[in-house]
Amino acid sequence: MARMKFLCDSDRCIECNACVTACKNEHDVPWGINRRRVVTLNDGKPGERSVSMACMHCTDAPCAAVCPVNCFFTTADGVVLHSKDLCIGCGYCFYACPFGAPQYPRVGNFGSRGKMDKCTFCAGGPEADSSEAEYAKYGKNRLAEGKLPMCAEMCSTKSLLAGDGEIIASIYKERVARRGYGSGAWGWQTAYRETVQT
């Protein structure tokens, strides 16, 4: 079975934020939450790079390792999801994630911030596929429809790739071979404990 992964080629990202907007629109993500965001490193300086960030659906997810109620689970496709019914909003996952993926839906005192929200790779949640309950909590389940995440489909420069990790790695390897160098796979080794051979 395929392992679903994201890869952002920072040499192609132009910081247009289409991925962020597409995600919010597709899933009716509440105000104040960005399941995906674009981070710019060395802004305005030589070597500036932009990276589209969300949950990287790690092989050994640190968010799942620290959750005291075991609300995180990994699907057969390698997508890391969580149950909002089990979540107690403690925030351990927020602090454990190196990519800042889990987020509180509201700002406020501890206990009033609500249950955590994160990127679902457009795969919904533990409820029945494409049900109203699933949509209300997690947004649209595009994976059940045979589609890729909306953020990657809307990327105009195709810097954000999503899908089978082996296919994505082969696309990136081909790009690296054409460029002659490979600086743009930021986060791949941290999240997936694998290297993209150049």
From TrEMBL:
PROSITE patterns referenced in this protein's UniProt entry, alphabetically: 4FE4S_FER_1, 4FE4S_FER_2
Keyword 4Fe-4S among record annotations: yes
Residue ranges of every copy of the 4Fe-4S ferredoxin-type domain listed in the record: 4-34, 78-107
InterPro entries: 4Fe4S_Fe-S-bd, 4Fe4S_Fe_S_CS, ET_IronSulfur_Cluster-Binding
GO molecular function, one term: metal ion binding
Sorted UniProt keywords: 4Fe-4S, Iron, Iron-sulfur, Metal-binding
Superkingdom in the source lineage: Bacteria
Pfam families on file: Fer4_11
Name of the protein this chain belongs to: Formate dehydrogenase iron-sulfur subunit
